[in-house]
Amino acid sequence: MLAPEVETLAWAEQLRLDDAAYQRQIAYLLAQSRFYRSKLERAGFARPNEIGGLEAIGDLPLTEKSEIRASCSDADPMGTHVAVRRDEIVRVYSTSGTTGTPSYIPLTAQDLDNWVTASARSYSASGVERGEMIVSTYNAGPFAAGAALGAFDRLGLCHVPVGTGNTERLMTTIRMLEPTAAVMTPSYASYLAEWASDRAFDLKGSSVRRLLVAGEPGGGEASMRARLEEAWGARVTEAMGIGDIGVSLWGECEERNGMHLGARGFVHAELIDPESGAHLGMEDGAKGELVLTHLRHQAAPLLRFRTRDHVEIYTSPCRCGRTAPRLRCIGRTDDMLIVRGVNVFPSAIREIVNEFAPDIGGQIMVKPDAVGVKQAPPLPVLVELAKGKYEESGLAEKIEKRIRDALVVSTRIDLVPWGTLQRSEYKSKLVQH
Ligand SMILES: [Zn+2]
Q: What is the 318 CA–ligand 1 centroid distance (Å)?
């Protein structure tokens, strides 16, 4: 364990420390952040003593990414939530906004150090140790994922960056340098498994023993994980972050029953009902949208930020000794469809479909008939057959029945030949309107 004195601290004690940090952060926001001073004042919270501690955080307004974007102007290109002077900022990451204008994420030296600390805890939970060689496949460039790479230095790993879209180079590196760990999106890990199988490359017999996946849901889906572990002959653990708050905030330990909050002490996590916005308790098994609050951030702290990640929380004790709560990402709220009042995540459909391996290949595409979120049943889904498999009578109906039983949603499964759906070397798109 990277920092046992932090990672095994009783959770109640962590919350007590977090409560004090939160109250300092609130006072800082009111003093330094024009965005939050005005937002909180409008909501009737002009002074720290009216806001109270973490136990009352559910009374405060939520922050949407769009509000931050709307606060950007020529005078404030990074947004009015920036709470430091320009000369205190040491790094600016950006995300590619849907409108084409990037949104910027500034960090102070302390912020950046905290990001690396949290990310290092999350990645070390996987069991990867000082001296191991890790090959990375992210084209970090302007993106916050670059800070996660700093965590590998912190852990004393030998880091071999290869980048995305260099499959030949990656496989040559694995063959020649024999790294024991590799980090990538689950989509790319699947793509590489097919690539290797097509070329009789012995991926299973390669040096890679740990596959660290991040960047999208999938690595936590039991059937996808089993397929990846079989193809790679490696143990899969996942990590998850969100650019605006921090990289690899969550990381899975060797017990592999959800990702622990590696950013404990830096970030407070809560759950809300995505429709009503109501605050939900963090009980074992609770499901909802993840909402995150910075506790000791300087450059552009966020309060009750809606991540759009729909997660399940686990608070039962973990045998690894880490006391932080764990979670699994079920899907992105942005991908969610509502079929006759039932919330459906495409990644959840994929998880069920994957149970039909080896008949199916693992690729799916949800093709809603209607524009928007609300859909009438049955929901059309393309499912790729496995390589060399032909449509077998009754398979589509079996998949439809299993999805109906598990997710209470009616689908129309169309089986398509292997290779029909597009593969991704980065993140997979599961819905096509
Ligand atoms: Zn654990």
A: 5
pLDDT at position 246 is 96
Range of the domain at 405: 337-416
Both 298 and 351 in one domain: the answer is: no
* Same-domain check for residues 299 and 384: no
Residues of the chain with pLDDT under 70: 97-100
pTM > 0.70: yes
Same domain, 299 and 372: no
Same domain membership, residue 217 and residue 97: yes
Q: Please give the distance, rounded to the nearest whole angstrom, from the Cα atom of residue 328 to the centre of ligand 1.
A: 13
How many Å lie between the centroid of ligand 1 and the Cα of residue 259? 8
192 is a domain residue: yes
Q: Are 304 and 283 a contacting pair, CB within 8 Å?
A: no
| C-alpha 3 – ligand 1 centre gap (Å) | 14
- Residue 270 CA to ligand 1 center (angstroms) comes to 19
Write down the pLDDT at residue 98: 58
Nearest-CA neighbor of 373 among 339, 410, 397? 339
- Tell me: the pLDDT tens digits for 4-20? 999 999 999 999 999 99
User: What is the per-residue pLDDT for 216?
Assistant: 87
The pLDDT, as a whole number, for residue 141 is 80
CA of 198 to the centre of ligand 1 (A): 36
- Looking at 233-357, list the stretches that DSSP marks H as alpha helix, in order from N- to C-terminal side: 346-353
CA 128 to ligand 1 center in whole angstroms: 14
Same domain, 345 and 301: no
DSSP 72-119: --SS-TT-TT--S-GGGEEEEEEE--TTS--EEEEEEHHHHHHHHHHH
CATH number (domain holding residue 100): 3.40.50.12780
